[in-house]
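ingest -> validate -> predict -> emit
validate: passed (alphabet ok, no gaps, 475 aa)
predict: started
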Amino acid sequence: MTKKEYAGVSLPVALFTFAAVAAVMAVGLAILKLNTMVTFILAFITVVIIALCTGMGLNKLEEVILTGFKKSALVGMIFIVVGMLVGYWIISGIVPSIIYYGLKIFTPSSFLALGFVIGCIVSFFTGSAYAALGTVGIAFMAIGYGMEINPALTAGMCVSGALFGDKMSPFSDTTNMAPAASGTDVISHIKSMFWTVIPTFVISIVLYFILGMKYNTASEESMQGLQDIMTTLDETFNISLLLLIIPVLTILLVVKKVPAMLALLAGAVAGAIVAMIVQPQFTFNQIVTAFASGFSGEFEVAAVAKLLNRGGVNSMMSTLCYTIFALVLGEIMYEMGVLARILDTIRDKIEKPRNLIIATLLSCLATVMLTTSQYMAILLPGEVFQDSYKKAKVAPYVLSRTLEDGGTLFAFLVPWSAAAIYSYGVLGVSCLEYLPYAFLPMICPLMAVVCAVTGFGVYDTDGNMLRGKTGKKVS
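emit:
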């Protein structure tokens, strides 16, 4: 007798599974205020029980869980390397130098808008939100703390800047993945994204400038606090502009298409070498152990201790565990076919371009919520809706743009997604805290809805704009 293959779940069970996971996450995180790890474990147990009840064998379940672990390996290694990098960049004087000169150059009122633009530039040329957050994001958070700017606001600005490049850069994996999943080319895809990203970019700059004006008038106490921070940094470390070469070279490695993990590892090793040469006040043991436990120093100025006593692999362990559970949970849901079953049911019933675009956005959000994966939120809806866009005679680059407007951006707005967990690990601010200030990922999907409703930027397969016609079937 042959072993029966697991065929996935039916539509009612798929809807029940979706509702069950959403309920566990919402009640656990928002209502009961449970620890994130506890909430993940409860959601994991819930899905495992449903999977077993629907016929998934124990051997198959073990195989799926191990696949999820394997998929978390790369993200986990990036987490570990970022922890090393932060520890070494602090003890080497790189981060203290960035803070020192940042407090000199930036003003509190200009910091948010300029920081956003710089983040956009760095992420565009690196093509990686992870790399941008792991380099300039860390520095900007420290500068923001020094200027007494709301950390959630600074983190939202960092995430917005990092996502610009992840979405628009031809070097980005998602920018190449979305057109591949939609049946179009990268150039057409990037041109199509101008319709939603450029207005969002302008609105974000204006909002960060307006919010920055709130910090225009610094009190005498605040200015004295900044001076105390700069004095303490200068007395504790050998501050030098030459130290900034290391972050620049790290970013250049990513620009040259060196994998982000290896580029960040090279930056961490360079930081360790520089620390031994430039910062002789620290012992060999202090420098060597910084990769594991981070930097730890005693400072009279409390703000400096808050800025610098951090980093190390140990600081990323809880974040790494969250990510593993998130990706394992997503892998089980994917194997069960929860989203595929739901999307297959609705895709052929959506014929109007407007409804099709909005349904794609919602599908991306649902995929992120269930699989916690930015990539699955592009690939799965892309695979499901590609034929529907052809039947509706809507250009494939409209689909690819919508996948980025949804999948790429929502991944940083769902608190239990791998991308949001990474942001929390690097910036030290949770997703729910920075979400109201992450203007680019918040506004861009809304711009996509505006385009869907009005028809601006929505084209048929012949290249004609469907202005005012997206509420009708394309003839």
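The mean pLDDT is 87.
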